[in-house]
Amino acid sequence: MSGPILEIDGIHAGYGETEILHDINIHVDPNEIVAVIGPNGAGKSTAIKSVLGLLNIRSGAIRLNGEEITNTPPDQVVTRGISYVPQTQNVFVNLSVQENLEMGAWTRPDGMAERLEEMYALFPDLRAKSRQAAGSLSGGQRQMVAMAKALMVDAKVLLLDEPTAGLSPKYRGEIFQTIRNIKNSGVPILIVEQNAKQALGTADRGYVLVDGANRHTGTGEELLADRDIARMFLGGRE
Ligand SMILES: Nc1ncnc2c1ncn2[C@@H]1O[C@H](COP(=O)(O)OP(=O)(O)O)[C@@H](O)[C@H]1O
Ligand SMILES: [Mg+2]
């Protein structure tokens, strides 16, 4: 099958009367990591939420494998194979790592043992912690649990909202490496990030959003080399 896995095509959307996204275009092809960067309040999280059916899209379309899913309710979006890791509160802190993963498989309860084994292969650090409460883990390991939980279903695409926010450089590096491993396992990824340099260094392509509109797009390398982008986002940050 050719064509994008996920397509956000010229959407206008917002909360209540207020329009936040003005003609946003983003797509994710098979085998791609796509990064969305931009200043605080640019509409990055809102763009992800528009895919999930969490806000009203006034015009434009969302398509999954060419099929329109605009304004589909969130539970049906997830059942169709769009997996999402929110920025915060993305694990059940009082449940063990393994229980978290089992909760992630609510739309696909069959083949649980095989699925868990696949996740422990993709996230090796979690195997030894499987009986520990997720709330007792470090921030980086908790993000691993959240991603593994999201991948317990047959994900066609994984959406990540700032998975490295608040993490130390060491854990940030581990998360970006894990994101590459997820891509190599066959799941394309749309990632929203504040750590622009590392995100663009990891991504195949990227988009810069400013004030709810597309500002720049290109390969990760092209965006990293762009002076305007360097001035906006890459100064100061490692
Ligand atoms: N639930 C909400 N209700 C109303 N306005 C919101 C809501 N969430 C975000 N906004 C507004 O939408 C704009 C974009 O926010 P957001 O998508 O969270 O930006 P980013 O993720 O790029 O930092 C901001 O002006 C923010 O105040
Ligand atoms: Mg955000």
Query: Quick one: CATH superfamily?
Result: P-loop containing nucleotide triphosphate hydrolases
Count of DSSP H/I helices: 9
What topology, given as strand order, has the largest sheet? 6-7-8-3-9-10
- Uncertain parts: none
Annotation, overall tally of beta strands = 10
Number of domains: 1
- Outline, from the CA principal axes? globular
SSE ordering: EEEHEEHEHHHEHEHEEHH
Major β-sheet annotation: 6 strands, mixed
Taking all Cα atoms into account, the compactness measure Rg is: 17 Å
- Classify the secondary structure makeup into a structural class: alpha/beta
Percent of residues in helices comes to 25-40%
The CATH class designation is Alpha Beta
Q: Architecture in CATH?
A: 3-Layer(aba) Sandwich
- How much is the average pLDDT? 93
Distance between the termini: 38 Å
**Could you tell me the strand content as a percent range?**
25-35%
Task: Draw up the topology in text.
Blueprint: E1 6-15, E2 18-28, E3 33-37, H1 44-51, E4 56-64, E5 67-68, H2 74-79, E6 82-85, H3 97-104, H4 112-122, H5 139-150, E7 157-161, H6 169-184, E8 189-192, H7 196-202, E9 205-210, E10 213-219, H8 220-225, H9 227-234
Compact overview of the structure:
This protein is of the alpha/beta class and 238 residues long. The chain has helices at 44-51, 74-79, 97-104, 112-122, 139-150, 169-184, 196-202, 220-225, 227-234, and strands spanning 6-15, 18-28, 33-37, 56-64, 67-68, 82-85, 157-161, 189-192, 205-210, 213-219. The structure holds adenosine-5'-diphosphate (ADP) and magnesium ion (MG).
